[in-house]
Amino acid sequence: xxxxxxTGTRRGFIGGAAALTAAAALARPAPAAATxxxxxxxxxxxxxxxxxxxxVAGLTAAHELAERGFRVTVYERKDALGGKxxxxxxxxxxxxTRRPLPGEHGFRFFPGFYRNLPDTMRRIPFPGNAGxxxxxxxxxxxxxxxxIGREDLRLPFSRLGNVPPVLTPDAFRRAVTxxxxxxxxxxxxxxxxxxxxxxxxxxxxxxxxxxxxxxxWQFTGADRMSSDYRKLLCVGITxxxxxxxxxxxxxxxxxxxxxxxxxxxxxxxxxxxxDRVLNAPTDEAWIDPWVAYLRSxxxxxxxxxxxxxxxxxxxxxxxxxxxxxxxxxxxxTADHFVSAMPVEHARTTWNAQVRAADPQLARCDRLMxxxxxxxxxxxxxxxxxxxxxxxxxxxxxxxxxxxxxxxxKGRDFRRDYGDGTVADCLSCIASEWDRPGxxxxxxxxxxxxxxxxxxxxAQMKAGLNDTGNTVLSDAKLHSWFLDPAVQLGGPHPxxxxxxxxxxxxxxxxxxxxxxxxxxxxxxxxxxxxxxDLATMEGxxxxxxxxxxxxxxxxxxxxxxCTVTPLYRAPEFEFLKxxxxxxxxxxxxxxxxxx
Length: 594
Description:
Residues 56-550 form the Amine oxidase domain. It comes from Streptomyces morookaense (Streptoverticillium morookaense). This is FAD-dependent oxidoreductase. This protein has helices spanning 56-66, 116-122, 169-179, 186-200, 204-209, 216-219, 227-240, 251-265, 282-296, 343-346, 352-357, 359-363, 413-416, 449-464, 536-553, 573-584; strands at 48-52, 71-76, 87-89, 102-104, 137-139, 142-146, 153-156, 276-278, 300-303, 305-313, 316-324, 329-332, 336-339, 369-370, 373-379, 389-392, 399-403, 424-430, 477-482, 486-487, 494-495, 499-500, 520-522. The chain is an alpha+beta fold. Among the domains are: 48-85 and 290-368 and 502-553, FAD/NAD(P)-binding domain, CATH 3.50.50; 103-139 and 275-280 and 372-495, D-Amino Acid Oxidase, Chain A, domain 2, CATH 3.30.9. The strands form seven sheets. Strands 7-6-16-17-18-15-19 form a seven-stranded mixed sheet, covered by helices on one side. The chain has a five-stranded parallel sheet with strand order 9-2-1-13-23, covered by helices on one side. Strand 6 and strand 7 (153-156) form a beta hairpin.
């Protein structure tokens, strides 16, 4: 059962639309975003740093520190580096000289409003690329919203060539209405445009003190609108992109992402197209060259070691206690420690003494994570459903997918991977694991791994094969691969690699990169950064902030890392200033009509 190639005849383009599929821009700069070089301070050459975690945050911290002369060792609990961003080999899938089939935690994309992560990628050498690994990013051109029993929505997805030169409120409303032109009633589109105008013109205090406390569902008036409005603009955005529920998701977090996408589409403050993917499996295009470059800088890597405890002495972290897969422990000492693990793992290493030294660490216990996990389907024929991502809108498990082979230029799947019969990889993510499926009537967590694969496949077919064209065929399905971090089939399902989610109030519990412990720094997507969403960009920005905090602590002469904030439209700054006055007087935003 694998897919076929053509689907264009049954999906019409929605003119002028661009899928704003996510959530939005916090206008406050990230903590510790210093960029000014410091002078005359002590040498860093003899200083040692233990980076605890080898994902995007840990590798970024190691990169910035090594380039500034620190002696860095990265400790990673997995046997591979890259964290949730890495790709992985499917065991037993290779034949002859081919590589194993590429699996992954879940597909990833690199919006053009990412600025810090692309800067790092440019600084990672890659053979034949003048721009390093950054040159391995390629844009998609469209997106698809697949609906069960109804015509699918195929949307152009790129920066607009004809954009409003000045963002007046009227120009803003017209632009948003065009972007959201998804066969919704005109009055509902107008209402959404007005709600977003309220956000775009809200002052920073209103964003963090009012909208952070309001669920996206309430902010968008979902209860008063049509089912399509709720499904497309309320539930679809939060479940499929932010991995949380619209009824509880913070308006600030969702709106921050929407704002960033909007400006990206208008080509403002953008590094590239709104949706970009890698032109090869992640390890080949990015992670392996990154690790090789860091080794050339003297960074050492020790994998298969999990951090169990951070022990203090004299008000500082004296040692980290690590444990290998066999249960053997060891102690690691360093001048400084950068905790670069996901929050659900990092907080287990903070004992009572560490927590007492800095109250913000204890608040991290209130941060919530959820399952957003990938599964790959390997197909015996190329299956480019759309040149970009697919949102399987009506699926109970909130499935999204992308056909990868079409973007992997210069690679031939049959020649390079697997057993010679696989021609494509449909990489999918299931974001809802607590809702019954359509085959077994069970939630994903109640299913076996085999049942999860069958359910996801069936849910995608329900939306893609429902208008007479067999897009996904069972006969062409070669095999599948589910993220091994997920443990199913027993009484206690577990997921070792979860994702931070953002219900209302989450912002107040996110820590800064620097801590009250002078040699402990935090780098991870849960740290408070401008993007306010668990992303690779957030992890990268947090690591830069952690390095800056470390440099300040040791009074280093090294240049500080640049931490680039999200774009702010100058046209709206006056309206934000006026809103600051109104907020102080207890008044609504001037465009907030309820």
